[in-house]
Amino acid sequence: MAMATIPQPDLAMSTTAQETPPAMPSEEPKFGGFTRFEIELEFVQSLASPLYLNHLASLKYLESPPFIAYLSYLQYWAQPAYTKYLTYPGPTLKNLELLQQERFRADILSPDVVARLMDEGAKSAAEWPSS
């Protein structure tokens, strides 16, 4: 699913909806034409981008307790039943794990940290087996 902009997470979603991962794409209710599964998949995949993490930090999302709780909730993507839907599971899950740390949420504002993460991503992509 490719959209022109990366959606911001819906922090107004009910607490009960956030306590359990969404069902796999099926007869789920739609939000703006997309299922909760699709929306969360697109958002969690955007976390693979260090530049996007820096953007979230610059907007102070990474200081917001409801947003931090949402990031914690999104850890269900590490389960194999969900990981298989991620395009870039390595950086996506690594950054999601790093976002659980208060120190990282503060450090991602640094251009040096963003550059290091981008360099690490480029290096691992270049080393990935091409066969």
TrEMBL record:
GO terms for biological process: regulation of DNA-templated transcription. Residues 1-29 are annotated as: Disordered. The keyword Transcription applies. One of its GO terms (molecular function) is transcription coregulator activity. Its main location: nucleus. InterPro entries: Med31_sf, Mediator_Med31. GO terms for cellular component: mediator complex. Pfam families: Med31. It is found in: Nucleus. Belongs to the Mediator complex subunit 31 family. PANTHER family: MEDIATOR OF RNA POLYMERASE II TRANSCRIPTION SUBUNIT 31. Component of the Mediator complex, a coactivator involved in the regulated transcription of nearly all RNA polymerase II-dependent genes. Mediator functions as a bridge to convey information from gene-specific regulatory proteins to the basal RNA polymerase II transcription machinery. Mediator is recruited to promoters by direct interactions with regulatory proteins and serves as a scaffold for the assembly of a functional preinitiation complex with RNA polymerase II and the general transcription factors. Component of the Mediator complex. This is Mediator of RNA polymerase II transcription subunit 31. It comes from Venustampulla echinocandica.
